[in-house]
Design brief:
This protein is α+β, with helices and mostly antiparallel strands and 105 residues long. The protein has a single domain (8-102), classed as Alpha-Beta Plaits (2-Layer Sandwich), CATH 3.30.70.100. The protein has three helices and four strands, in the order βαββααβ. A four-stranded antiparallel β-sheet has the order 2-3-1-4, with helices on one face. Helix 1 (22-38) runs antiparallel to helix 3. The longest helix has 17 residues, at 22-38. The radius of gyration is 14 Å and the shape is globular. The two termini are 20 Å apart.
């Protein structure tokens, strides 16, 4: 039986500033989601705005699945990631929170 390795997961919580135009935020979100088509080893990339108040100051979340943990440095250094990261830094109110974990367990 063929077994598929569970992905390595990169999660980021973003506290987007209220004064940033919604159209620009939507553009950045779309670029984040597009990373799955831009970076060959990204299994999936999902991003969206919270629909509840449970996220406190965090308004958006990004979830990226990679094949393995050793790809995280390559992902972080990839030009497509760096380009969207520069835009994220312009729209967040404060520090983001990032977590990375191996989803095998």
């Amino acid at each position: 039986m063929l077994q598929h390795k569970m992905p390595f997961v990169h999660v980021v919580l973003l506290p987007v500033r209220r004064d940033v135009p919604e159209e620009y935020v939507e553009q950045v979100v779309a670029e984040l989601c597009e990373l799955k088509n831009t970076i060959e080893f990204v299994r999936s990339a999902r991003c969206g705005k919270t629909v509840t108040s449970r996220g406190k100051q965090f308004t958006h979340a990004l979830v990226v699945e990679l094949e393995s943990a050793d790809q995280l440095p390559r992902y972080q250094e990839h030009p497509a990631h760096q380009a969207v990261l520069a835009k994220i830094k312009k729209i967040v109110a404060e520090d983001t929170i990032a977590m990375d974990f191996d989803s095998e367990h």
